[in-house]
């Protein structure tokens, strides 16, 4: 796996790739630069363009691509700019390079498409797409070649999309390690409202309650609240654009969520009222059912057993833990780390297939590891 600047992968030699020729990436922020790193690691010629000269120079310095030349003839153009200028840039690129296939990676698909259609732009070689990947921190300095690996990449084709054009966009996604999903723009925007945009708002609203909270309360924060509010560190400027461009689907989900919150609040106003406790229990149970529907490892709705290991806060302990799990022939399906402030140890919550948990727990205990808890009966 490459380092953030992609140098280690290039040192090992180009990887097999479906993408060839010159790829022009417009926008050298997190997604644009990350695409550049991943393609450069595969020996693809990447041209970077950005409205900000300093951002562009930084991305080039980090190895995400090269500066454009007057004789460049890209076969594929990836527009990776903020949603409020996506339609403008897509139109400019289609007109400047009529023989190239243009895709964009904006997190909203319908509004840019409607804008382009209203303008009468020839969309023959345009295919909207969206990788469900990102980080809390943006910019070229945070870019990584591996952020797309295993992540969904939505492609919004239409009846006029040629097989050749589609293969270029799908080949890009596959080269970057993503999993292809085909949706209409309408389906995409409704889906991301539920799975991405509203979760951002919920995390931000909850974290906003911390601003005036007593310091004593904040010291009680554990991994649960950190997981719930992790994405609250996202950039406000970008999210104003995303939420504004996808307002209607987001509002529909928010209205449903507000009704659910009202029902729970009413039940808790007087827990002794007949049916109140059942209403709360049904809310938690429905959440259990929803979580179980989320795809797990390798896209499977599969449940794992978990155990928690106490790890001393010294160097090399996590590496030793993984090494000894390997000796026990136990594959780690998922991992969560928690380190309480001021504590001399951390907690590693490890998920394994049910058949392996007894072997893992017994084997680690025999090797001197402290098991804090387990879901195994």
From TrEMBL:
Q: What class of enzyme is it?
A: oxidoreductase
State its Enzyme Commission number(s): 1.3.1.12
Domain Prephenate/arogenate dehydrogenase, residue spans? 21-298
Reply yes or no: does the keyword Oxidoreductase apply. yes
- From which domain of life does this come? Bacteria
Q: Which UniProt keywords are present, listed alphabetically? A: Oxidoreductase
List the GO molecular function terms: NAD+ binding; prephenate dehydrogenase (NAD+) activity; prephenate dehydrogenase (NADP+) activity
Its recorded name reads: Prephenate dehydrogenase
């Amino acid at each position: 796996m490459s380092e953030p600047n992609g140098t280690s992968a290039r040192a090992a030699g180009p990887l097999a790739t479906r993408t060839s020729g010159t790829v022009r990436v417009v926008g050298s922020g997190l997604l644009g630069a990350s695409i550049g790193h991943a393609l450069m690691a595969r020996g693809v010629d990447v041209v970077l363009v950005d409205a900000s000269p300093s951002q562009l120079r930084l991305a080039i310095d980090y190895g995400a691509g090269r500066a454009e030349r007057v004789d460049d003839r890209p076969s594929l153009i990836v527009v990776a700019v903020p949603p409020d200028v996506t339609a403008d840039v897509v139109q400019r690129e289609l007109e400047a390079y009529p023989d190239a296939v243009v895709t964009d990676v904006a997190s909203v698909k319908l509004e840019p498409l409607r804008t382009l259609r209203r303008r009468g732009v020839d969309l023959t070689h345009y295919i909207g797409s969206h990788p469900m990947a990102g980080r809390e921190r943006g910019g070229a300095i945070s870019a990584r070649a591996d952020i797309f690996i295993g992540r969904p990449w939505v492609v919004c084709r239409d009846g006029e999309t040629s097989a050749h054009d589609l293969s270029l966009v799908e080949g890009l996604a596959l080269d970057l390690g993503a999993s292809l999903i085909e949706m209409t723009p309408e389906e995409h925007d409704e889906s991301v409202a539920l799975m991405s945009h509203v979760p951002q708002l919920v995390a931000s609203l909850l974290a906003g309650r911390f601003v005036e909270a007593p310091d004593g309360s904040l010291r009680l924060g554990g991994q649960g609240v950190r997981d719930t509010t992790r994405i609250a560190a996202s950039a406000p400027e970008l999210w104003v654009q995303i939420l504004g461009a996808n307002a209607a689907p987001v509002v529909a989900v928010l209205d449903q969520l507000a009704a659910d919150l009202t029902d729970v609040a009413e039940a808790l106003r007087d827990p002794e009222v007949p049916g109140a406790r059942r209403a709360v229990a049904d809310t938690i149970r429905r959440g259990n059912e929803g979580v179980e529907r989320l795809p797990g490892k390798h896209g499977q709705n599969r449940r794992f057993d978990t155990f928690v290991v106490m790890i001393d806060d010294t160097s090399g302990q996590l590496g030793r833990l993984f090494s000894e799990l390997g000796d026990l022939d136990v594959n780690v399906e998922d991992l969560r780390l928690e380190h309480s402030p001021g504590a001399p140890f951390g907690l590693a919550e490890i998920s394994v297939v049910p058949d392996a948990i007894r072997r893992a727990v017994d084997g680690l205990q025999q090797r001197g590891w402290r098991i804090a808890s387990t879901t195994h009966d």
